[in-house]
Structures are given as C-alpha cells and as structure tokens.
Specification:
352 residues, 8 helices, five-stranded antiparallel sheet, alpha+beta, single chain, elongated, four-stranded antiparallel sheet
Length: 352
C-alpha cells in the first residue's frame, strides 16, 4: 500500500519539498549538495489500522523471543547431553546442541527483527541534516540533545504503544537468562570429592591385570604391581573418574630397608601401597628401580623414594605420594584399612 492509495483527505495538506541544499551547481561548483529528497509519508503515518498491525507484528516478534528464551532454558535442563537426533539434510547431530542453537538464534533474531520493524514502520522516518559542531558540550548543545531525546521518545510512541513497549521489555529482560543459566556449568562445587577415593576399610586390593584379589605371597620383593579397589570395573560409566583418584601401586621392600616409621606401620610384611598419581600434574607413575626403591614419573621426571615415605628426591613435584594403609583379612587377602590420609594428585587451592 502506498500513499497514492490513501484517501486524499488523509494525506498531508502540503508535500514537503527538497530541503537541506547548501549550494547550487555552477561552473565553479559542479558537485553541489542537492539536499534531501521530499519526505514521503508511510502507510502507518496515515492509517492507524496499519500502525496497529505493525504494532501487533512487533509484539509478536518480541513475544516469540521470550518463548524461545524459555525454550533455551528448558532445553538446557531437560535434553540429555548424549542424545542425538536426525535433522535433514544435516544428518545425525547432538540434540542438546541443536536445541540450544535453534532457541538462542530465534530469541536473538526476533529481538533484532522486532526492533528493525519498529524503527521502519512506527518511529519517525524524517531525515534531518545537522551541521557538525565542536566536540565540547555547550549549554545550547546539551539543551538540544535533551530536546531531541524527548522528541525522539515522543515520536517513537513508546508511551502510547504500550503493547510494543511491554513486550520489548519482556524480551530484553528474559534473554539474559540464557547466559545466566549457562553459569550452571561452573558448578556444583566439588565439595570434598577431591579429598576422597573409593578406598575404605575392607576394600580388597585387586590386580589391574588379572582382576583378581592379591595375597601377600603374590607380591615378591622388587616387584611393582598396580591395583584398584574391589568393585571398580572398566565398564562402569565413572571408571575413568574414579581410577584417576584410586589407582595404587604396591611394591615389596625388605622391612629393614624401610626408613620411614609410619610407612613401616602402614605396610604389611614390607608391602607398601602408594598412590600412582604424580603430585606434580597428575601423570600416572609407572617406572620403578628395584635397587634404590625409586619410582619415576615419565612426564616430568619427578622421582620419589618409596623406602622413605615416597618423599620427592628430584623433579617439580611439590609433595610426597599419599600412602594407603593396608593389612590382611581373615581369608588372607590384602585389603585397605581406610582411605588415603590426604588428597591424591596435584595440590589445589582449597587443599589446606
């Protein structure tokens, strides 16, 4: 619909002519400023019903943005992170990623589209030429800015178009919740998870290779054996998380060669059990030297003396390996007599 289709009585009484021209083209100035073209009224400027239709369309876009934001939050909470769906022609994709991307995109698009449609159909579209002015704010300039702001607010009809205003505020207020809900991934706090492992009193020491519990006779002097807590299986969904804290290496040392008193008390017939996780950056320790009873981390060469409380004798590790107190149960199998007395692996800021 154009201004030619509007009844003549609704048109402005006098069409505006070109304005803003600063000079006239002549031989000396062939590129003179022609000024701005005449202003053509829009349908919404003349027909209130058309303005109402635009208002409802803008409100619909803002409302759709609000619903998309709610959908984003619902998807984040309710869609399983490991679920996949088929989307033509993309193929199989992660359902959560698809839902989050779709709802977030719709929420952003509708806010932008609503704002653009509002500006193009309901706000004033008069083009105004304004001369450049000094950067400092003169009293006259401040007064003009305030007056222009009031005039702009009046022409935007934000006070009169309550439906547009309220739905826009609703869309802008709800949309930031998409970012806030993502903060959920920063928690929950680990609590005491890093301080405890699956080891507890009565847990059997199970050989990692044979998956069988160990007797003292299975561990010979000079050998290195890796064990895990009884009940932890490789097919468990949390196996990697738990073994990263509970992996233990056991060696047998002649009791006379054990220098640390507590280490001797926590051992059984010279069999000592220490965390396999290096206290530098958490690499698994796997190299053992029989004659010196030293174990070496292959990542950064931190070296620990297993005959002297697993203290650090070389490398960047900051503290000794945690020891696991062990004994023998009624059936003659090696068992833990509790958890580690300190967190395993690298230090962390809450560790004190």
């Amino acid at each position: 619909m154009s201004s030619q289709d509007i009844p003549e009585e609704n048109l402005p009484a006098e069409q505006e002519t070109a304005h803003g021209a600063v000079s006239v083209a002549d031989e000396k100035n062939p590129f003179a400023d022609p000024g701005l073209p005449p202003h053509e009224p829009r349908v919404q400027d003349i027909d209130e019903q058309a303005a109402k239709r635009s208002e409802r369309a803008i409100a619909f876009l803002f409302t759709l943005s609000m619903l998309a934001t709610v959908g984003f939050i619902a998807s984040y909470v309710g869609v399983p992170h490991d679920k996949s769906i088929f989307v033509f022609p993309i193929g199989h994709i992660n359902a959560l990623n698809f839902a989050l991307g779709l709802t977030l995109g719709v929420a952003l698009f509708c806010i932008g589209a609503g704002a653009v449609h509002w500006a193009r159909t309901l706000m004033s579209d008069h083009e105004i030429a304004d001369d450049r002015h000094p950067i400092e704010a003169e009293p006259e300039v401040r007064a003009k800015v305030h007056a222009d702001f009031k005039q702009g607010a009046k022409e935007s009809a934000i006070g009169r178009r309550k439906l547009v205003r309220n739905t826009m505020f609703g869309a802008l207020a709800l949309f930031p919740l998409s970012g806030v809900i993502l903060l959920r991934d920063l928690g929950p706090l680990p609590g005491t998870k890093l301080r405890h492992t699956l080891w507890k009193r009565g847990k059997l020491l199970v050989n990692m290779n044979t998956n069988e519990p160990l007797r003292p006779s299975d561990v010979v002097v000079g050998s290195l054996t890796f064990v895990k807590p009884e009940g932890l299986e490789e097919h468990d969904h949390d196996f990697q998380t738990e073994i990263a804290k509970a992996a233990v290496m056991i060696v047998r040392i002649q009791p006379d060669n054990i220098k640390d008193k507590r280490e001797l008390e926590w051992s059984h017939e010279g069999i000592v059990a220490y965390s396999k996780i290096c206290t530098h950056v958490g690499c698994p320790i796997s190299l053992y030297e029989q004659q010196t009873h030293h174990v070496l981390c292959p990542c950064h060469q931190s070296t620990f003396d297993l005959s002297d409380g697993a203290r650090v004798i070389f490398g960047p590790a900051g503290h000794a390996l945690p020891q696991l107190r062990i004994g023998v149960n009624d059936e003659g199998y090696l068992e833990a007599l509790g958890d580690f007395d300190e967190p395993v692996g690298p230090a962390f800021w809450e560790r004190g």
